[in-house]
Each structure stands twice: as C-alpha cells, then as structure tokens.
Amino acid sequence: MAEDIKTKLGRYKTAPFDSRFPNQNQTRNCWQNYLDFHRCQRAMEAKGADATPCQWYFRVYKSLCPSSWVSD
C-alpha cells in the first residue's frame, strides 16, 4: 500500500503557471482547461487524428478542479 502511494506521488504533476490566470482563485483556469480538453478532443476526432495530446488539458483540469466537480 505504501509503495502504491509513493509511485502515485512520484508520477503526480501539478498544473503549470498560466499567465492568463494570475490570481489565487483558479476556478476560471479550471473551467478553461476543461473546455480546452473537450474542444481538443472534438477537433482531433473530426480530423481522425490521435487525441493523446489532449490528455495534457485533462491532467491540468483534473489537478485544478475540485474532486467533486471531476468525474472519471
């Protein structure tokens, strides 16, 4: 169990600084990354391309948004 937590902590990455949202309240940053993720996915699927690059937005909004807002 302790090893599992250590590996999760080792792989955990927080959201990088975004100069569009310099304030302490990150709610709008959460929302913008949520929108960017879904827009990216929709655009990649329309092109028939791999949507793997969109996972960056998913990790950022999952890191920023309260867990009660995010469902897997």
TrEMBL record:
Keywords: Disulfide bond, Mitochondrion. The keyword Disulfide bond applies. It is found in: Mitochondrion. InterPro entries: COX6B-like, CX6/COA6-like_sf, Cyt_c_oxidase_su6B. The keyword Mitochondrion applies. One of its GO terms (cellular component) is mitochondrion. It comes from the Eukaryota. This is Cytochrome c oxidase subunit 6B1. It comes from Callaeas wilsoni (North Island kokako).
